Amino acid sequence: xxxxxxxxxxxxxxxxxxxxxxxxxxxxxxxxxxxxxxxxxxxxxxxxxxxxxxxxxxxxxxxxxxxxxxxxxxxxxxxxxxxxxxxxxxxxxxxxxxxxxxxxxxxxxxxxxxxxxxxxxxxxxxxxxxxxxxxxxxxxxxxxxxxxxxxxxxxxxxxxxxxxxxxxxxxxxxxxxxxxxxxxxxxxxxxxxxxxxxxxxxxxxxxxxxxxxxxxxxxxxxxxxxxx
Length: 228
Hints:
This protein is α/β, with parallel strands linked by helices. The protein folds into two domains: 5-122, Rossmann fold; 131-226, Winged helix-like DNA-binding domain superfamily/Winged helix DNA-binding domain (Arc Repressor Mutant, subunit A), CATH 1.10.10.10. The protein has helices at residues 14-26, 37-46, 63-73, 88-97, 109-122, 157-168, 176-183, 189-206; strands spanning 5-10, 29-34, 51-55, 79-83, 101-104, 131-134, 137-140, 145-148, 151-154, 174-175, 212-217, 221-226. The strands form three sheets. A five-stranded parallel beta sheet has the order 2-1-3-4-5, with helices on both faces. The chain has a four-stranded antiparallel beta sheet with strand order 6-7-8-9, covered by helices on one side. Strands 10-12-11 form a three-stranded antiparallel beta sheet. Helix 2 runs parallel beside helix 3 (63-73) and helix 6 (157-168) packs across helix 8. The longest helix has 18 residues, at 189-206.
């Protein structure tokens, strides 16, 4: 299993910081929170981070100045700015200071996670967990192998990709449209019917373990449920 990606979150709104931190933790990131620019710069210098999320409006040192100082010693760690400003001038200033992307408040937390993964993959940080354990099952994604109660089942590529998506998002219901985009790269009615067939096959493979179930949330999507 790969080590969790280290995220530095710099946000002075404690409620928003808590929401972001908790969701990123559920998405298997390790998050360190700082509430002002000075503390963030000091923290950044103490240990390596894989990505920084920086609010523009911060006490003691604004986000633009913080990133400018970070770039004096580190040119590669991706930086995503959080901002309530959408003016072209602010974006240009942010990119000039060394930012890699802007996310305008209010934003979709799931979109934030997707953007984080994109930048981590570009920088060579593999965020994909490869072996999953749930109930009495072990899923070895690289080898497309599912073991249920010591019985091994070889999966097809699409079966493995669908199961990986479900395993990686056990904390939430996965919308059908998002699953289709992740597995096939497009949201299509006929591909949706194909996905239903693959889901049925996966349910059959998992059926010997009654502590595990792929739930169908009608009109929404699917969730891999591990019963306690």
